[in-house]
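DM from R.C. (forwarded with permission)

"hey, sorry to bug you on a friday — could you get me a structure for this? deadline for the figure draft is monday and I only need the backbone to look sensible"
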Amino acid sequence: MRVKIALAEKGIKYECKEEDLQDKSPLLLKMNPVNKKIPVLIHNGKPICESLVIVQYIDEVWKETSPLLPSDPYLRAQARFWADFIDNKVFECGRKTCMSKGEETEAAKKELIESLKVLEGELGKKHYFGGEKFGYLDLSLIAFSTWFYSYETFGKFSMEVECPELIAWAERCLKKESVSNSLADKEKVYHSLVQRRKKFGIDQ
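My reply, with the result:
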């Protein structure tokens, strides 16, 4: 989703190939033999892997159009720091919230809400994380908005009550076509998690 948003922001046309992760294609295994994961951007026959790395690559290659990362080195480092926080802290807490039960879910939910509140503090009263313009950090987090419904359902809490500024920010982002056209459907994400919970014996 991040890569699709970045390409849309830059106005770059591309061909998208969906992958069955239960039966990975020879192309995926060839292009990402290390992690064997999506997404992979193939540009000029060369693969670039991992969503945030791909987004940075896109921003560097097509730097003349709609820059995503700040030009200031310090602000650029800060954006990368917070994107790393999202991938390591928010993703992990969110995954645990959706893929556990009982006390484990409660502990994960508490940590998830705390992490989201930290991000809300970083956003402050700004329109977007970088100020008035949608950028790298917005793009990094908005992909997780498709999980918000699942967080609430499995964690039994309200995102709007806990993080109202973050929800308002997400609604602003969703008004952008580059975002709304690139995100997965929240119901599909939820039902996918329901199936995974059954597969791993969390729910019978």
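R.C.: lifesaver. The CA atoms of residues 27 and 33 lie 10 Å apart.
me: no worries. The chain has a mean pLDDT of 97.
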